[in-house]
uroporphyrinogen-III C-methyltransferase (Ureibacillus aquaedulcis), 253 residues
Amino acid sequence: MTGKVYLVGAGPGDPRLITVYGMECIKEADVIAYDRLVNKELLKYAKETVELVYCGKEPGRHELIQDEINELLVREATRGKMVVRLKGGDPFVFGRGAEEAAVLREANIPYEVVPGITAGIAAAAYAGIPVTHREYATSFAIVSGHGRAEKGQDFLHWEALAKGIDTLAFYMSVGNIRHIANQLIAHGRDKNTSVAIIERGTTENQRTITTKLADIADRIEQEQVVNPALIVVGNVVDVREKIAWFEQMEESV
Ligand code: SAH
């Protein structure tokens, strides 16, 4: 009998932020193929007999690794295994989940998608930043910031992002931040717009730095920000001053 594959979102970092259904999948899995950003604490809930496969992506080996992952999912499910493909955040937000689903459909393997809390919302919330707010923002976009202009990969509609959307959450963007800030300002975003950089959001190592759009690239260099990090652009960042809670909680423990 054919097994089944569950494309599961592990949540943004704090292991308690996985869904109940995601946790049930982990507990029942025969095979768990997990990504680099998944909190390893979650793997402790798996069966003793589980087979764990690390799918961390090495720079430059992207395609090969993805093919190997696809093959693994099909192979193990064909053997009748209950396979969990565990991804950071949500599997359909910059997670290649849809590509894996398409491969499974092609191979006639049954699958389910278990959503997870994405970093753009969760890391912001742990930093005391609401992505929408009645007074500050009524629209919110999740944006991939890694497209390099010089390599012809910058497909973003900068004018729309700069002028049309209140809160922007940039994923995969630390190395490209100077270009991002320049483009937003050039297309009409106020250079004094507040910006937050949230490093390792929702983990005990979370660090939040706030600054202005015009200064963000210099600040990221000075502070030596490491990945994973999220960049939130918009007036909602100012709300942090009033409702930040995570750092206060750590202090009071
Ligand atoms: N599927 C994931 C995103 C994968 S892309 C999700 O839904 O969250 C990887 C990018 O996500 C990183 O470059 C970073 O920008 C962001 N990210 C993931 N986890 C994060 C965390 N704990 N803190 C800050 N940013 C995070």
Notes: The longest strand covers residues 4-9. The beta strands are 4-9, 31-34, 51-54, 82-87, 111-114, 140-144, 167-171, 194-199, 207-212, 229-233. The longest helix spans residues 62-78.
